[in-house]
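Aim 2 progress update. The chain analyzed this quarter is reproduced below.
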Amino acid sequence: MKILCAGDSETFSFAKPIGIGLINSSINLTSFILEESPKSLLFVGSAGSYGNLKPMDIFSSGSCGNVEIGYLLDNCYTPIDNMVRAKIKNVSCETTNKKDILVNSSNYITTNKIVANKFLENGFEAENMEFFSVLTVANKFSIPVLGIFVITNYCDNNAHRDFIKNHSKAKEKLALHVEKQVSKI
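Predicted structure tokens:
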């Protein structure tokens, strides 16, 4: 199993950085897969909560959407399939959630509580910038994949401030969790 992370301020000693955002992560992950041929992938990172998950909660997911705010507000449409689920999810790691939590990926961070509530109404629980591309690329190469995330903040007008305040502690908690889980595999 190869463990991946976004990079820059979100790196882990046990994970390979693939880039921040949808484009960088998809290009770099594709290159990595072509060079290394991993048997399975585990993506680890931080996420913002649309309201139900609390800061420092850790959860796993194998499903993601690429939904922009304009789409939620019926101001646009997309001809692409903007939802993806891991085709193969045999990467095993224990987390607190019993159901597959639906994550949203966008190159933009939600800072409006009303919009966050719209995401919740549509079944999304959290957002992470890279996960949609990670799932999409893994599925293209038929590689088992899972994401494990730690909540750093709520998606509201304090999102960036709380992310900065909680990020170091959240990364430490996620690192301990992942290292413990990987040792069991």
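Helices lie at 21-36, 69-72, 113-121, 131-140, 159-184. The first strand starts at residue 2 and ends at 5. These observations will guide the mutagenesis experiments scheduled for the next reporting period.
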